[in-house]
Backbone:
């Protein structure tokens, strides 16, 4: 895929050096609001990168002013409950959640509502100094609908999650860092480069180990400690069936860099 890919109207997609797939939201007039077509394009691009053996990690970003200001309110305003129930979007959010390669969000400006939920589906979040995180759905008479209440409660604990969801409290980049929503804050003009650099580093690692590492960490968010520990142990054993485990340990003992095969 290249940035010229005519299949996409609302996003720009390209493979960056170091085996990194980049998805850039591109609806500047509405601060990258996620209408159905945009979400569908994001899912198509992410799935294609997930299946592409030339890509080891995926970065999602927006503009300097907005990562994404939420679901598209104009599109959503006339919907009925039955419309939403029949909508493919729930399945699309599930598809994003099931991405096997690492998803890294480079967030500048507003990450609100569904935009913030998109951030929280990502595995690593790099924030620009100007980033603002929040769930303002309550102002529209609704609540988050793509995981916001659940992921915030798990990530931040009850009290802060309640303030954000019930009372539109917005977090600055530094507050998000302190709360554990993001892993680093960088100057705004550096945010994409920083995310691409993290993605390149991960893409250069043993691919099967990266995949099982992601799967194992994610399990911590949706099961008991006992089940999570079992999965971790299972994945740990499984990696001893890969050539890369033999190569990684041999390379350490021979004091040379490993040459990963991805199997
Ligand atoms: C549609 C949007 C939009 C949105 C902004 N715009 N957010 N259009 N859906 N979510 C449009 C504005 O209407 C405006 O269009 C243009 O983008 C620029 O926005 P302004 O408001 O003029 O910019 P500013 O004053 O800088 O304020 C930025 C903002 C504000 C604070 C982000 O736009 C805002 O509050 N937006 C809505 C945020 C929100 O409520 N998000 C949650 C949506 S519900 P014009 O034509 O006037 O220039 C949701 C549910 C998820 O996400 C459910 C998932 C299943």
Residues:
């Amino acid at each position: 895929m290249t940035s010229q890919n005519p299949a996409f109207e609302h996003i720009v997609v390209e493979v960056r050096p170091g085996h990194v797939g980049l998805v850039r939201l591109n609806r500047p007039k509405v601060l990258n609001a996620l209408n159905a077509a945009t979400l569908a394009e994001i899912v198509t691009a992410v799935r294609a990168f997930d299946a592409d053996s030339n890509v080891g990690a995926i970065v999602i970003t927006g503009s300097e002013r907005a990562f994404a200001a939420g679901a598209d309110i104009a599109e959503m305003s006339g919907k009925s409950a039955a419309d939403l129930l029949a909508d493919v979007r729930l399945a699309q959010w599930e598809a994003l959640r099931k991405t096997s390669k690492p998803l890294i969000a480079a967030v500048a400006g507003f990450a609100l509502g569904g935009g913030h939920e998109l951030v929280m589906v990502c595995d690593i979040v790099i924030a620009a100094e100007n980033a603002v995180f929040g769930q303002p759905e309550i102002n529209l008479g609704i609540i988050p609908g793509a995981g916001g209440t659940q992921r915030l409660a798990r990530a931040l604990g009850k009290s802060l999650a309640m303030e954000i969801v019930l009372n539109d409290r917005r977090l600055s980049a530094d507050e998000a860092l302190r709360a554990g929503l993001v892993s680093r804050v960088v100057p705004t003009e550096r945010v994409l480069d920083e995310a691409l650099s993290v993605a390149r580093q991960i893409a250069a690692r043993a691919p099967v180990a990266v995949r099982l590492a992601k799967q194992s960490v994610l399990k911590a968010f949706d099961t008991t400690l006992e089940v999570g520990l079992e999965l971790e142990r299972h994945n740990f054993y499984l990696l001893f069936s890969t050539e890369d485990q033999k190569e990684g340990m041999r390379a350490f003992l021979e004091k040379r860099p490993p040459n990963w095969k991805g199997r």
Observations:
- The two ends are 25 Å apart (CA to CA).
- The mean pLDDT is 96.
- Residues 30-31, 33, 69-74, 89, 110, 112-114, 117, 136-137, 139-140, 144-146 surround hexanoyl-coenzyme A (CB under 6 Å).
- The first helix runs from residue 36 to 51.
